[in-house]
Design goal:
The protein is an alpha+beta fold. It has a single domain, classed as SGNH hydrolase (Rossmann fold), CATH 3.40.50. The protein is 28% helix and 31% strand. It has nine helices and 16 strands. The strands form three sheets. Strands 2, 3, 4, 5, 6, 7, 8, 9 and 10 form a nine-stranded antiparallel sheet that branches. Strands 11-1-12-13-16 form a five-stranded parallel sheet, with helices on both faces. A two-stranded antiparallel ribbon has the order 14-15. Strand 6 and strand 7 form a beta hairpin. Helix 2 runs parallel beside helix 9 and helix 5 packs parallel to helix 6. The longest helix is centred in the C-terminal third of the chain and has 24 residues. The chain starts with a helix and ends with a helix. The mean pLDDT is 97.
Length: 359
């Protein structure tokens, strides 16, 4: 942020990983808008190839896709552990295609730099990639072994569409596409993993996730897990020490790709339910205490959402506000609540930045 304020024209990447609390690009779009308004529009960032579930959305682009199969890290369905940075690998045969278009929007409405994130593998097919109505480039994904690759395209900055189409025999394994401006600015990538336990971060192959993070080269990695783990606390199968160990392993697994990057653990909100289990403050406090401990051990910042909301029972109070700030399911904040939380997180980061600049 200081480099951007000093006039550098770079694009600064932020990667935000989490479960349903960052779903539908709701909380994350609040943060993206605030940081891009303050520091410059870096574009949409890394967008997955398809809406593989309703929880995944990117509000800065129009995403059209067809005929892709997928494997989601939440189900641990790929023995190779190659799920891409977003936790989903997509498989396409002839006829599979994706078009991602910049939207007419105050932010993210232009792009100048594109990247296709894919993998080469034995029997890999070819795909074409095309910007707007320009000439298509054909890329062969056949290789002796499974390996991640990237194809970059730079064009004049403006509104654009990028289209990827699978051709020929075999299949293509791919992850997503990047849309960024020339800068200066910030991008805030969002990868929401519906229903995922925190320990699902262990499912990435070690070398693969390190390479994915290293290539994305983020300045900040934010983690927001824990809500789904509450039922494991409520049924007596998870305690504070075990959860802390799981979370720390996951954070270290991801951060190994860029150990010098900053990291932020956003604590869970108050909850009232998780599936069939009634969630009490004592259950939430087990998770929050473990997350605070993990942040200290990993050298990450910690945002204590639970305390900021008001502690035990606060979610019900937020639900009963006029207008309400929480959903009726006693698990999630609604859009207004996520706007409030996003504002708090932005203010906390900015307070740290101001202290850094003036200290």
């Amino acid at each position: 942020m200081a480099r951007l304020d000093a006039g550098e024209t770079e694009v600064v990447q932020v990667v935000h990983l989490g479960a349903s609390m960052i779903g539908m690009d709701d909380l994350t779009s609040v943060l993206r808008a605030k940081f891009q308004t303050r520091f410059g529009d870096g574009g949409a960032g890394l967008v997955l190839l398809r809406r593989y579930m309703t929880n995944y959305l990117h509000r800065w682009v129009k995403l059209q896709a067809k005929r892709w199969d997928h494997c989601y890290i939440g189900y641990l369905c790929d023995k190779t552990g190659h799920y891409g940075l977003g936790g989903v690998t997509f498989f396409g045969k002839r006829g599979a295609e994706t078009t991602i278009t910049t939207r007419k929007h105050e932010l993210g409405d232009e792009a100048a730099h594109f990247e296709v994130w894919y993998a080469a593998e034995p029997g890999g097919a070819k795909f074409s990639v095309q910007i707007d109505d320009g000439e298509a480039t054909v890329i062969d994904t056949a290789a002796d072994t499974l390996e991640d690759r990237w194809h970059a395209i730079d064009v004049e900055q403006g509104p654009h569409a990028i289209t990827m189409r699978v051709q020929g025999n075999g299949r293509v394994r791919a992850y997503g596409m990047v849309l960024e401006t020339r800068g200066p600015g910030i991008v805030w990538d969002q990868f929401s993993m519906l229903g995922a336990f925190t320990k699902r971060m262990h499912g990435w192959d070690t070398k693969h996730i390190a390479g994915q993070v290293a290539h994305r080269d983020p300045e900040l990695v934010a983690f927001m897990y824990g809500g789904n783990d509450l039922r494991r606390v409520a049924n007596g199968k998870l305690d504070q020490a075990r959860y802390a160990a799981e979370y720390l392993k996951g954070v270290n697994h991801v951060m190994a790709g860029k150990p010098i990057a900053s990291c932020l653990i956003v604590g869970i909100t108050d909850r009232g339910r998780s599936l069939k289990f009634q969630i009490r403050p004592k259950h939430v406090e087990v998770i929050v205490a473990a997350q605070r401990d993990v942040a200290k051990q990993a050298g990450c910042a910690f945002f204590d959402t639970y305390t900021a909301m008001g502690g035990g029972g606060s979610l019900r109070k937020w639900k009963n506000m006029d207008p309400p700030l929480a959903a009726k399911d006693l698990k999630h904040l609604n859009h207004a609540g996520r706007e409030r939380l996003g504002g708090w997180i932005y203010d906390a980061i900015m307070a740290g930045y101001i202290a850094h600049r003036t200290g």
